[in-house]
Design a protein that fits this description.
CATH superfamily: NAD(P)-binding Rossmann-like Domain
Number of strands: 3
Strand order of the largest sheet: 1-2-3
Radius of gyration: 16 Å
CATH class: Alpha Beta
Oligomer: single chain
Structural class: mainly alpha
CATH topology: Rossmann fold
Strand content: 5-15%
Number of domains: 1
Largest sheet: 3 strands, parallel
CATH architecture: 3-Layer(aba) Sandwich
Order of helices and strands: HHEHEHEHH
Shape: globular
């Protein structure tokens, strides 16, 4: 663990080295590499989370840029997960970023993400899809 890099959060009362170690052992899926997903990835990665699974099959488009502020005009065209993964690896190379070039659905959630993940950060617009997806993910966790 790089104690200097995470020294400010290690100093937080009740957090300490044990809290940072828990972050480093954490594995989180992000089911969107768009506006919210890019921010989740940025903050989780900067906090020292051990592994982040990114699922999105979309490409960066000029029309996405107003809401997806971590991408810029020069990056239009490539897959969002590829660009986001590269940027987050530069930010914190110790985080294992696993890219899934697919949209996360209830049908593929267990095989795609849950083997490595114990908590969920999702951005799903449709409540029914979100509920089904969460149920699919939670079925495979061993708490």
């Amino acid at each position: 663990m790089n104690e200097l890099r995470f020294s400010k959060q290690i100093k937080l009362k009740g957090f300490g080295i044990a809290g940072q170690q828990a972050h480093q052992n954490g594995k989180l899926p992000i089911a969107d590499a768009g506006g919210l997903g890019t921010r989740y990835a940025q903050y989780l990665n900067s906090m020292g989370v051990g592994a982040i699974g990114l699922a999105d099959e979309d490409t960066i488009a000029l029309s996405n840029l107003p809401g997806q502020t971590l991408f810029d005009k020069a990056e239009t065209g490539p897959k969002k997960v590829a660009v986001l993964s590269k940027k987050r690896s530069l930010q914190n190379p110790s985080t294992n970023i696993i890219c899934h070039d697919t949209f996360l659905t209830p049908q593929n959630a267990q095989g795609t993400m849950c083997l490595a993940c114990r908590a969920v950060y999702l951005r799903i617009n449709n409540y029914v899809k979100c509920t089904l997806l969460l149920l699919s993910l939670f079925r495979c966790f061993s708490w």
